[in-house]
Amino acid sequence: MNPQIKHQYIDDVKAISVKTYIKKRLEAFAELREDFSALSDYETMLMFSLSYPKEEVPFKGKGYGNVSRYSYGLDYHQVYQQAFKDLEATLDSQGIKAKGYADISPIDERFAAHLAGLGYLGKNQFLIHPTFGTYHFIGVMLIDTVYETEPYAYDTCGDCTKCIDACPPGALDHGFDKRKCTSYVTQAKEALDMCDLRPLKTKLFGCDICQKVCPKNQAITPVFHDVFTADDHAQLNLTDLLTMSNKAIQKAYKNYAFGFRGGLVLKRNAMALLMNQGVMDALPLMKQVYNNYKHVDWFEQTAKLILNAMEE
């Protein structure tokens, strides 16, 4: 009999055996030479889905930057951590060893969730759930006992190319080029060029374009969780952000998913948005920020490029 897996922040669960995951992983990615030792004490992977709404706050206009929808409200890592803590204690009382992970884990979570039948991997690289579409967070819990579920019927994107066609930098043109993905670019601590910067017009962190155009997201029915409700930090004043110290940014946004990369990444992105929005009044402040942080190589190279472009 399956142990009971129930929690307010677990909206769906599918399971796959550890042995099956390792077998399929070796068949698909033998060249990676992965280390599966962290899985040796466990029998089953429970693949969790935690949904969030797709509605976005209206863009306020020049001088502002919004964050990706998944970054609204409490950082989902913190939400999952509480769910894992509760479930681990419940399962431990039943004599079951359990360990939960979200993002930072010894497995490929999307691949495992796909194998478990929690959804299918779309052309936009998201796991597409039959009820939540792409608007959900994946979590995994390893347990040392057998747990069985029925997978959802396998779906596909068919001939649809809407996400491919809509991606401004063409990150999906030939499979998936992570380096071209705007979501990756807004999180990267590396020097950027104008091809990276020009798509950054209203989004300070992340990107939702491929989700917004996906037909699979048109009739989804997410479970409401008030922790993912938009607040004043779903959209930020860019010049205000540039005036804050990195320490102040970290303190202000530590409970948000967009805060984990640090203040300097957000400042770099804010400068790119101000450039693309043509906010010339911000140029003196941007120069000041450049002088304060030009000792950081990746920031110096990108900020200098932005300032030069604005002064041309």
Walkthrough of the structure:
With 312 residues, the chain is α+β, with helices and mostly antiparallel strands. The protein has two domains: 12-143, no CATH class; 162-311, no CATH class. The chain is 35% helix and 13% strand. It contains twelve helices and nine strands. The protein has helices at residues 18-29, 76-93, 109-116, 162-166, 182-185, 194-197, 209-212, 238-243, 246-252, 263-276, 283-293, 297-311; strands at 12-17, 44-51, 64-67, 98-101, 120-121, 127-128, 136-143, 203-205, 235-237. A four-stranded antiparallel β-sheet has the order 1-2-7-4, sandwiched between helices. β5 (120-121) and β6 form a beta hairpin. The radius of gyration is 21 Å and the shape is elongated. The termini are far apart. The model has no long low-confidence stretch (mean pLDDT 96).
Record the strand order, biggest sheet.
Answer: 1-2-7-4
What is the residue-averaged pLDDT? 96
Q: How many structural domains?
A: 2
Number of helices: 12
**Helix/sheet category:** alpha+beta
Strand content: 5-15%
- Percent of residues in helices comes to 25-40%
* Helix-strand sequence: EHEEHEHEEEHHHEHEHHHHH
Biggest beta sheet summary: 4 strands, antiparallel
Distance between the termini: 70 Å
Give the low-confidence spans: none
Return Rg in Å.
21 Å
Number of strands: 9
The gist of it:
This protein is of the alpha+beta class and 312 residues long.
Break the fold down into its secondary structure elements and pairings.
Elements: E1 12-17, H1 18-29, E2 44-51, E3 64-67, H2 76-93, E4 98-101, H3 109-116, E5 120-121, E6 127-128, E7 136-143, H4 162-166, H5 182-185, H6 194-197, E8 203-205, H7 209-212, E9 235-237, H8 238-243, H9 246-252, H10 263-276, H11 283-293, H12 297-311
